[in-house]
Amino acid sequence: MSWISDALTSSIGRKLSMSLTGLFLVSFLFVHLSGNFLLFKADNGDAFNLYSHFMSTAGIIRVLEIVLVAGFGLHIYTAIVLTRKNAAARPVEYVANGSNKKVTWFSKNMGLSGSIVLVFLLLHLQNFYWRYHNWDIPMVEIDGKEYKDMYFLVASVFKNEWWVNPVYLLGLLLLGFHLQHGFASAFNTLGLEHKKYSPIISRIGNLISVLIPLGFATMPLYFWLFN
Amino acid sequence: MKSMNLTLKIWRQANAQAKGEMKTYSLSGINDHMSFLEMLDVLNEDLVKKGEEPVAFDHDCREGICGACSLVINGRPHGPLQTTTCQLHMRSFKDGDTIYIEPWRAKAFPVMKDLIVDRSAFDRIQQAGGYVSVNTGSAPDANEIPIGKQIADEAFNSATCIGCGACVAACKNASAMLFVGAKLSQYAMLPQGQVERKRRAEAMVAQMDKEGFGACTNTGACSAECPKEISMANIAMMNREFLTAKFTGEA
Ligand code: HEM
Ligand code: FES
């Protein structure tokens, strides 16, 4: 079996982990975003509360939660391993900094954008995941059954703890930066390069790097400013 | 012809063990038709006359085909143009400019003296698999082996890599993946390369890792600085070759 560990710990193998976990996290963003849009359903949050209840109780989701944590864990762990190896590969830096205009800022700063996303992520987990599971939050009755009022929690965090909003917006902006390079990069890493498809993949990367952060940003902005 | 005065900041290091430093030199009366290396020749003649040690730098063909010349000029491998240093001319600079000249920086390319680095890591990667060792017979007649024009062109483009190491010097991770990608792709696309295809991919990547080069982040800096314009597609092909070899190879 040593060929597997050889393959996975080689430079290209690490990049394989990076790209597969990265694309998996992108798929998570789509699911998360579409579920969260239930916040905007005009039913006083019933649909969103039922969805939150399902997401925190259904067995299949609990399993996927483990996969998601593992995905984040492997992505971050591999990012650290690669960043350290890459830094070791250039022990002496150049005195003069020349930059080629064809190289994007986003591509050179994946570690920075990723780290800010991580800070945002921790705040976000404390705000919602931790409180949903550990705090006494108000209950609502929907069709004769009691549910935790996640809708209320979301609305009150964005309204009353409004200082989190700039952090959310910054986190989302840097998530966009991360995706602007990361999405297309992941395909090149996987060896999926083709004259016909690669330009389309780059364009999809550009598109989602704007639309995903914008989609998420509507939520804090709505509760902060319009509700 | 214009004559220019320059300030040069050059990395000086007596030998591999010595601690180096940037030293400043002023140079006057440089002809803007001179190549960058000729400008350094002028500097060296001055230094020799003064009884100082001339600046050591690599060069050979001086016509852009051997890959010997190196130098990171103002932070960019081979300077401001996408060409070799021997093909860079002083007209790319202005009178009064300060020019920083440094060696390729990578753990796998240790400095031997001044601006000369040891690029034998590339040789060892090639020795690990960058060849065809099966008997391919004598030179076949033209078009005897049918190869599509497009494939032939792409393999040829990969084969134009002169192994100068600018990709490593340009990459923020000092990654050699563009070089290895080109050297793998040129064989992977051609019939003669098929017999050893998987073994080659595994061996060359293993040697690349062993030499201590970094991993690719797909910034594209390598390709943007490559004097032969080797494309990033070569890195994708290398990844594909390596992963396929690892996961489907029998050995
Ligand atoms: C929802 C969150 C995230 C998503 C969707 C995501 C997605 C991606 C994708 C698609 C890539 C490209 C992989 C490749 O080039 O092959 C990538 C690379 C990277 N990610 Fe993330 N990422 C996320 C969070 C993070 C976090 C929290 C960190 C840091 C702690 C991070 C650090 C990095 C780094 C450093 C790279 C570049 C690695 C390299 O090629 O050198 N990412 N990410
Ligand atoms: S000296 Fe041969 S390429 Fe520059």
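^ protoporphyrin IX containing FE complex. The longest helix of chain B spans residues 233-248. Chain B is about 35% helix and 15% strand.
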